[in-house]
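G., before I forget:
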Amino acid sequence: MASLLQSRTPSLSFSSSLCSTPVIRPSVSFLKPRSGPRIPVVRAKIREIFMPALSSTMTEGKIVSWIKSEGDVLSKGESVVVVESDKADMDVETFYDGILAAIVINEGETAPVGAAIGILAETEGEIAEAKAKATSQFSSAPAPSAPKVEESSPAPKVDAPSPPVDAAPAPSTPGKVVATPYAKKLAKQYKVDIGKLVGTGPFGRITPEDVEKAAGITPAPKSNVAAPAAPVASSAPASVPSKAPSNFPEIPGSTVVPFTTMQAAVTKNMLESLSVPTFRVGYPIATDALDALYEKVKPKGVTMTALLAKAAAVALAQHPVVNATCKDGKSFTYNSNINIAVAVAINGGLITPVLQDADKLDLYLLSQKWKELVEKARAKQLQPRTFTLSNLGMFGVDRFDAILPPGQGAIMAVGASKPTVLADKDGFFSIKNKMLVNVTADHRIIYGADLAAFLQTFSKIIENPESLTM
Amino acid sequence: MQSAISLSLSSPSTIARSDCTAAAAANSYICTPRSLRFCGLRREAFKSKSFNSLSVSTRLLPCSRNSSFKKVCAALQSNGAPSKGEFDYDLVIIGAGVGGHGAALHAVEKGLKTAIIEGDVVGGTCVNRGCVPSKALLAVSGRMRELQNEHHMRSFGLQVAAAGYDKQGVADHANNLASKIRSNLTNSMKALGVDILTGTGTILGPQKLKFGKGGSGDTIITAKDIIIATGSVPLVPKGIEVDGKSVITSDHALKLEFVPEWIAIVGSGYIGLEFSDVYTALGSEVTFIEALDQLMPGFDPEIGKLAQRVLINPRKIDHHTGVFASKITPAKDGNPVIIELIDAKTKEPKGTVEVNAALIATGRAPFTQGLGLENINVQTQRGFVPVDERMRVIDSTGKLVPHLYCIGDANGKMMLAHAASAQGISVVEQVSGKDHVLNHLSIPAACFTHPEISMVGLTEPQAREKAEKEGFEVSITKTSFKANTKALAENEGEGIAKLIYRADTGEILGVHIFGLHAADLIHEASNAIAMGTRIQELKFAVHAHPTLSEVLDELFKSAKVVSSSHVAQPVAV
């Protein structure tokens, strides 16, 4: 049989005898890292099957599939295994008649060129011996059998977490194991004994999640690929229970409400934020002057949000790094505009209208824009933002911590302004309104001192707010 | 299971192709080219108009009796002019599927007054319940597959957030496509003046038939020649209860009413394979149940092996081979679908499979009931209408029935939409006085998985068998998509093309392709077989670079033909 995939490449053969010096075949380069003759004379012909070098650049190969299985009788020239190299897949044939005694490297696993991937016995009587050789050789001499690396990582994991599962009695229907195709695949991959699992899927079947759990693997976050049908799955027949998205035990009587698009978007953003190294800096700010100003401008339609946004914008103008973004993990992106997003809770979610050029527009214009902006944001016309302001002060929250949305350098969380007893440096007590602001920032671009300086400026503006009305 | 059935059903035909819904596989280049041809014809009609400066009110009314405008005259004749003989029609076709449609269009071109009888919907299986809607689903599954393959996307430098789909949107796409193609087909026939008669067609005797809803309201018509083109329906083996919800056939599956978590597909031929592609892309897990010992029977073994490595092994699919589904009970009373398996040879029980749904893709059965074949002494063979190589119907005494032909799935020769159409055209050629025998070995077939599989001619074992008998040597050459620039640019290097040929003559015996756009690539080979072009000639044909067609270019170039005496000298222009 010719090689499977490339007509032009001559088909390759492998295997050399343990008792002879390696034979170099014209088209094959054998690299046999053998450390001297371990077995001086072996009468029985037990041969190793090596990972062949299929190209000059090939250092390791992946077993695509074994054409023959253990116990099959091979004749010279027959294809035995399909190997995938960096260039192509190829059938590899044997030069010797014999019996495939043991497969050392399983399908899908990788071995370096020259490593033994199987054992060939000449007669049936030698199969046991060959098998023993396969196991002893490859447990005592780990050097040539590189695939151990792959095996060893999942193996201990399998055993450790499985006892709790094992503790459960054998499946209720003896002798019958119902596992989905993917669950079976995973079980094979992670070497989990599927017979010992108890299925949690519909009709007690073993699901891929069950196997992953037994193997001690937390399902990858991308496992939601199958789930998107959920919002529209209402028409599915009752016989198909909705997918349980996680491993949490189900509490009877609970209802599952799928995320709306907005909620899904929030979830996505929040998860993405986990990849950013953030830190937080808090700062107390006296607000008596700000409160007084607010009383003055309130009749003119100015809101506290606008005041805070304006103050933040003015401070940001002096500390451009806090208004910057780290887009690629390698550089600062300094934004020419100061666009302040303000988090607003709406029924069942969160919107963030953006005040564009908040440092340049005056307070009254900002306030005027505010209302239409909220409507715009509701209609999901998102605008670029460089900084976010989140205020929970109106609910009496004194301090909190905000998550930095992806694509921004910093976010400010503003707590309630409360009367606080203060002692000044002369030892006099006084009562002043104070609020706590807490800024979360991306430490790749904004350092502690940057935030401190920014907050100092911000605090000065709040404590002397007259400039805001100019 | 499917192929076992195909085997028993269609002994005279090429087994590889007898799987019908392969018909499903190959639609697009059937339907579209037809309407294109129609457009061409119409253009000619306009041309003649301007030549004649006659004012004509209807598009296709005769503008000229000038014999130089043959096609236009043809259209004119069929368009209401009484036929010369004593018959109502020159040609009546029973069944308006792709086969009937192809025959009707060609008949008009040949100047025959033509009618077509449709009992269900114009377009037949291909357009309504086969190739066309399945291609819509496969178009979706291909994209889903690509978007879900993060590794693939990342190798392009693309980032895509978790892809999702709206089931109704997908189903609507399939449905809209079917109705669009159906109306295209209907319009093309109407525009050419083919009479579309509604109802069931029944043959009453030689050259005589009736149509209607049955009963006394039927209309009796006569025709000089009659073509049976009634097609096929999904085959449901005994013991299987189809409820249309949890146990379904391709008819139901194409509506995509639900996407089960786990579906068993009974039969791993074209239909089963295509649906496994759709379902796994949409998130289902699939279990194949195949009666033969290996999956994908009917494909060239080598291609099947590779396809299995790409289309089955890495996906959420497992399989039981060598077993029949002896009994399938639909899901009810809170129980899953239960499939009982028995060994295909020993008939011993081989356990049960419990799944959310089962798709029966075991092949297709001819739809020939109620045709009135008994009136002309024709006996069907397992439902198929027996025909000779010219599609002439053979009666129970082995004699030809004059003026009666049968094309498409109903004769079981090759259950593919485009094969039906080709047979129809061949019949029209014959009734208009020109002998014609269709070379079925030149008809390509395709399976629209991702990547696609396509083939024409013989498989390797078939070629070797033929070589044994006729005493020649078979040569084989292969090329890999991994060496093709365009395929690599698309990050789709998986695939091979295989050429089976005679080194002594350069004759192509078969070509099999598995890889990106294989279904579109096969035609260079199928045309070569149809035209009798030899490899030594093809070696000089130029292919644009970089294109996937270079896979075939390389394939032909790598073939070693001993004699090169046949090469036609290229003519310098």
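The longest helix of chain B spans residues 167-192. The longest strand of chain B covers residues 219-228.

More on Monday.
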